[in-house]
Write a structure and sequence with these properties.
The chain is mainly beta.
Length: 748
């Protein structure tokens, strides 16, 4: 039960609302109870809840009326007609309990057909109108737990009638009566009751005559609202407002079909809204009974999406019970089929937990279902069990119903409970249980999860001795395994692919179970490819080798043979060939199921003699200025060769021979680099000293830095020294030539 009873916003997106999302403000009129606090945020839409059966021995609900006695703080149900009763039955409802007051009251109104009642806020009492037929309409008041006859002995009073509309109108500080049924005539007269007297109002425009129209005061427009009802043609579908003197139709707000079939079929709730339920004329059947919940606010009707509504019916009486904080609904239904149920809209949250079937053999399943009602908005569900194992097997789901599959150890009684929380934070707990009988289990075992085509595998179903399998139906096998009806079989498949194998087993007592699915992968035979990083070069030659595998069953092992007695492993490896020759390389690949495939390189690896670069120069150098011709050659490696020269001053030449001018006395360095067809390289350098005509040398060395020797061969008289690539162009002084001698400029 909510501590703060406040009406909630409708989930209908077109429904009007305040800027803060909550509908209107709390009521202060005693017609709906004392002022209540408005929450900072709007509550969700209220849900229906079936509280209990109606009062035992009551008159038919369709002949009674429901009203909230704000002065006494409880809801009254006043039975209007019962064949064996001389007076109406008076019951009160509060805190979920009905109490029959009839036998404790010294006086009470006589029984009548379809009476009407409302709470008169001005006088602080319930006004009850009973048409007994043949005489004047009787008016009674109920306050402080007792009845008082208010019928005026003199003066104008409404004529006797059944099912008039009746409601308190705070705007005129009076009670308003409209229409009703008298001897088959649907009346359209309007009366007001104030200070104990009735007065007829004669507006220029009035609603068409009708009976069983719902009437309630709409605080959002400060007008009295009349909706629906019935006349000779059937349910009415119009809405009217009354301002104390005149009626006005609301053409833009037609009433929901047949909503108001009862004087108190509309209830005013905190926030200024009116609520109604059910009626006739909205379904496909002849009478079209409805079980929709409607709300009227801001001059328009909307449908409230409330959970668990009562069954379709006309004539349910409604009253907002301010003491309990929800709308109470009672009765309703067709003649002879009246319901004596008590319902609440936005009332106490309740839940029932059931398990179907209650007795179940593991590992079969049972369905856990919760029926929640009352409270506000959507429900949240948390299921708990008495033992931790059960909580693992059937983890809680935030659903009203879910399937629980029993585990093999779930034998015996298993108690559980569900905690249901509504959108307003209210929580209720409901218990439940089920019984687990000893389980029948069946498992599936494969001899291998992966095989190559042409290799056999075995599948077997394992069941306990107490429940042996007597029937087997297999699923997911390779097509060439054929139809299998035994609990164990062997198959050699030639169809590669992925298979999900399971078996449905029926045991000796008729329990059926399908095993867990087991995956089988049938691979094609492995295909191996291998290649080297290079196929030729001079010794020592380092070569990288790589192998790839398609098909087969991983993981794979690799065994390499390099043709020179050495071996290697892994999908990638390196090997250095130290001797010249041609070497045939191959690799053996074995997969996880033992299938071995070999791959051989398409060409052998050719290893030649080491590459050697040679410079040939003249044996005698003339004094400067002079010039020489250098010849380069190579041996070993793989022909053809590419000869590249680095000459003094940073000049580069290629090919052989090359001419080298020596214009000035000094020391000159030359480097030859040879690259063979396999990409190997060799290098050699030499240094020349040129003297002046007087026989002396001058000037700095013009050469790249010296490196290790790679085999120099020059003519006699020359000095051979190995040099590396020129890292920076050397700077040398420009000598002054002797007089009358010809000067050769530096060659750039």
């Amino acid at each position: 039960m909510l501590a703060v009873p406040v009406w909630a916003t409708s989930p209908n997106p077109s429904a009007p609302s305040d800027s803060d999302g909550a509908w209107a403000l709390p009521l202060t009129s005693s017609a709906v109870g004392p002022m209540v606090a408005t929450p900072s945020t709007a509550l969700p839409a209220p849900n229906w809840g079936n509280l209990s059966t109606g009062p035992v021995g009551s008159a038919p609900p369709s002949s009674g009326t429901l009203v909230y006695d704000a002065a006494d703080g409880y809801t009254l149900w006043i039975g209007g007609f019962a064949r064996n009763d001389s007076v109406v039955q008076t019951w009160k409802y509060g805190a979920g309990q009905w109490t029959n007051l009839t036998g404790t009251l010294p006086v009470a109104p006589p029984t009548s057909v379809r009476p009407a009642a409302t709470f008169d806020a001005s006088d602080g009492e319930v006004v009850f109108v009973a048409g007994v037929g043949g005489g004047a309409e009787l008016t009674w008041g109920f306050s402080t737990g007792g009845w008082t006859n208010l019928t005026a002995p003199n003066g104008s009073v409404p004529s006797p009638r059944q099912a008039p509309g009746l409601a308190d109108d705070p705007a005129c500080a009076c009670v308003v009566l409209f229409g009703g049924l008298t001897n088959g005539t649907y009346r359209a007269d309007t009366w007001t009751f104030a200070a104990g007297n009735w007065s007829e109002v004669h507006p220029t425009v009035s609603p068409p005559g009708r009976a069983s129209a719902g009437m309630a005061f709409d605080r959002s427009t400060a007008t009295l609202v009349l909706a629906g009802g019935v006349d000779a043609a059937g349910p009415r579908g119009d809405t009217w407002t009354f301002n104390g003197t005149a009626w006005s139709p609301l053409a833009s707000a037609p009433a929901p079909p047949g909503i108001a079939v009862g004087a108190n079929a509309l209830a005013a709730v905190p926030g200024g809204a009116l609520v109604g339920f059910g009626g006739v004329g909205c379904g496909a059947a002849a009478l079209g009974l409805c079980n929709r919940t409607y709300e009227f606010t801001g001059g328009s009707w909307t449908t409230i999406g409330s959970a668990n509504p009562p069954s379709a019916r006309p004539g349910m009486e409604l009253a907002y019970d301010a003491a309990d904080g929800y709308v109470v609904g009672f009765g309703g239904g067709l003649a002879g089929e009246e319901a004596d149920e008590t319902w609440a809209l936005g009332g106490p949250l309740s839940a029932q937990l059931s398990v179907t079937p209650t007795t179940v053999q593991a590992p079969n399943s049972t369905t856990i279902t919760t029926r929640a009602s009352g409270g506000y908005g959507p429900y949240a569900y948390v299921y708990t069990f008495t033992d931790s194992e059960q909580a693992v097997n059937c983890p809680s789901q935030n659903r009203s119903s879910y399937v629980c599959v029993l585990d093999l150890d779930d034998v015996g009684n298993r108690s559980m409970q569900v905690a249901v929380t509504d959108g307003a934070g209210n929580t209720t707990v409901a218990p439940g249980f089920f019984f687990g009988v000893p389980p029948f289990t069946a498992g599936l075992v494969l001899s291998a999860a992966e095989v190559d085509v042409g290799l056999p595998f075995t599948a077997s179903v394992v069941t306990p001795l107490a429940y042996p399998g007597v029937n087997f139906t297999w699923f997911g096998l390779p097509a060439d395994c054929g139809t299998v009806s035994t609990g164990s079989f062997s198959c050699t498949s030639s169809l590669p692919g992925s298979y999900a194998i399971a078996c449905t087993v029926v045991d000796a007592i008729g329990t059926r179970q399908t095993t867990a699915t087991v995956a089988l992968q049938v691979h094609t035979d492995p295909v191996v490819g291998a290649w080297p990083s290079r196929i030729a070069g001079s010794a020592p030659l380092d070569v990288g080798f790589t192998a790839s595998v398609a098909g087969g069953t991983a993981p794979y092992t690799f065994a390499w043979s390099f043709g020179d007695g050495a071996v290697g492993s892994g999908p990638s490896t390196n090997h250095t060939f130290d001797s010249t020759g041609h070497y045939l390389v191959w690799v053996n690949v074995t997969d996880a199921v033992g299938w071995t495939t070999a791959a051989e390189l398409a060409n052998p690896v050719a290893v030649g003699a080491p590459l050697v670069a040679t410079i040939t120069a003249p044996g005698t150098l003339a004094p400067a200025p002079t010039a020489i011709v250098l010849t380069g050659s190579a041996s070993g490696g793989e022909a053809p060769y590419d000869l590249r020269w680095t000459l003094p001053g940073g000049t580069n030449e290629s090919g052989t021979p090359v001419s080298l001018p020596l214009p000035s006395p000094g020391t000159y360095a030359v480097t030859l680099t040879v690259v063979d067809a396999a990409g190997s390289s060799a290098q050699t350098s030499t240094v020349f000293t040129v003297v002046a005509p007087n026989g002396t040398a001058s000037g700095a060395l013009v050469a790249p830095p010296l490196l290790e020797s790679v085999g120099l061969s020059i003519a006699a008289g020359a000095v051979g020294v190995v040099a590396g690539w020129i890292l920076a162009r050397p700077r040398r002084p420009r000598p002054t030539p002797p007089p009358r001698e010809r000067v050769y400029p530096d060659r750039q």
